[in-house]
User: Which sequence fits this backbone?
């Protein structure tokens, strides 16, 4: 019998080398064992000790195989094939996101529903410069699901003093690409849409794709145009501006009764009257502060937390460390949102 066992073991090993499936190996071993059983085990007398030993060995083998087969079947039943690791449904959070946003979810004013509102929100930021840098970074870090960036400029060495989203090795690269890279590195769970173009009339359709617009552009032409197109599209606009040591910010939403930018600043300053940052200079942390305020107001707007800057203009004077808030009124005769132009 030892030789029969050795032969069966050798056949199993051969099957293993040939990568034959288990059932094929048993199909070979079964008849071999059967022949050995009848040839050596039962030479005429079924009641002999020799026959009993063969019968016992065969029985143990059959029971063991049956047990293994039953166990395999039970395991297959108990462990259904795992579902493919699909991306979470829109608005649903991956486990890592829950950990990432834990400090937000703890806040009573934001919580799970607020975080979910941010995840499904689409925010467009105009300008990836001084104000755009902190805004974009904080919107990405905060978990705003889709963030669009409009800018046609490339990173310049003189930008690096305050436009903290760009690195030294990004000089010469498009700002939208540099910014998108930094945001993806910060939070891979947000989608960044790059719009490498100057904001002009052709961007009217673009606004329709977003829930909230942040204007961090650095010139009056763009600021007035963004205000007009946002009011026309009925989109809320967080607009900010900085110069030297001072910044201002408000949320304009004439579709919901607040003034628009042009209600407050009806007269465009004559060219050259208000110097740009390039002409007059700007303190490095100032866009960081005001741009972060833009992101803060965006988070509040999207989650419904607190009181936004609707109908209020905050003016921050960095040189004297002062801030004041002015209540704004809508102008009926406003060329953008007043009278017959009302959204
Ligand atoms: Zn207006």
Assistant:
């Amino acid at each position: 019998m030892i030789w029969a066992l050795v032969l069966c073991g050798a056949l199993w090993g051969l099957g293993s080398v040939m990568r034959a499936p288990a059932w094929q190996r048993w199909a070979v071993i079964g008849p071999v064992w059967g022949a050995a059983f009848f040839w050596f085990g039962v030479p005429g007398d079924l009641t002999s000790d020799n026959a009993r030993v063969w019968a016992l060995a065969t029985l143990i083998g059959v029971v063991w195989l049956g047990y293994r087969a039953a166990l395999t079947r039970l395991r297959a039943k108990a462990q259904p094939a795992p579902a493919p690791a699909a991306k979470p449904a829109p608005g649903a959070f991956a486990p890592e996101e829950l950990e990432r946003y834990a400090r937000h979810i703890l806040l009573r004013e934001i919580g799970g529903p607020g975080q979910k509102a941010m995840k499904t929100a689409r925010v467009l930021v105009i300008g990836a410069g001084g104000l755009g840098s902190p805004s974009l970074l904080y919107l990405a870090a905060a978990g705003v699901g889709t963030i669009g960036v409009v800018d046609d400029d490339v990173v310049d060495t003189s930008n690096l003093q305050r436009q903290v989203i760009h690195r030294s090795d990004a000089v010469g690269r498009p700002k939208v690409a540099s910014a998108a890279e930094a945001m993806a590195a910060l939070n891979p769970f947000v989608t960044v849409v790059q719009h490498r173009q100057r904001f002009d009339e052709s961007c009217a359709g673009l606004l329709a794709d977003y829930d909230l617009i942040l204007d961090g552009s650095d010139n009056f032409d763009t600021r007035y145009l963004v205000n007009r197109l946002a009011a026309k599209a009925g989109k809320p606009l967080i607009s900010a501006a900085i110069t030297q040591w001072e910044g201002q910010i408000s949320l304009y939403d004439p579709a919901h009764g607040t003034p628009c930018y042009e209600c407050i600043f009806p007269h465009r300053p004559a060219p050259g009257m208000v110097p740009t940052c390039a002409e007059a200079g700007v303190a490095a942390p100032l866009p960081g502060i005001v741009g972060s305020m833009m992101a803060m107001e965006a988070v509040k707007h999207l989650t419904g937390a607190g009181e936004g800057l609707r109908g209020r203009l905050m003016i921050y004077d960095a040189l004297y460390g002062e801030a004041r808030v002015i209540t704004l009124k809508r102008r009926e005769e406003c060329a953008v949102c007043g009278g017959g132009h009302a959204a």
